[in-house]
């Protein structure tokens, strides 16, 4: 369940710091959030798909680590990002 190229480019354009920025924490977190949302919808329709559930848990853990890093290094960008993405603040 990969993201379409158009959707990925749209997310990158929205959260990139510079023109060719595809690897910053903000972009990675935004892309992971979109994949998590897509997998969540898939798992609601297919509750017995355990391999996708495992992949979802890995994505959530990876996003959590990136959010923790961003919170510790650039707190103002962290706050803006969680508000833009609608992620719960814990």
Automatic annotation (TrEMBL):
GO terms for molecular function: rRNA binding; structural constituent of ribosome. The keyword Nucleus does not apply. One of its GO terms (cellular component) is cytosolic small ribosomal subunit. InterPro entries: Ribosomal_uS15 (IPR000589), Ribosomal_uS15_bac-type (IPR005290), uS15_NS1_RNA-bd_sf (IPR009068). The keyword RNA-binding applies. Keywords: Ribonucleoprotein, Ribosomal protein, RNA-binding, rRNA-binding. It comes from the Bacteria. SUPFAM superfamilies: S15/NS1 RNA-binding domain. Pfam families: Ribosomal_S15 (PF00312). One of its GO terms (biological process) is translation. Part of the 30S ribosomal subunit. Forms a bridge to the 50S subunit in the 70S ribosome, contacting the 23S rRNA. One of the primary rRNA binding proteins, it binds directly to 16S rRNA where it helps nucleate assembly of the platform of the 30S subunit by binding and bridging several RNA helices of the 16S rRNA. Belongs to the universal ribosomal protein uS15 family. This is Small ribosomal subunit protein uS15. It comes from Helicobacter ailurogastricus.
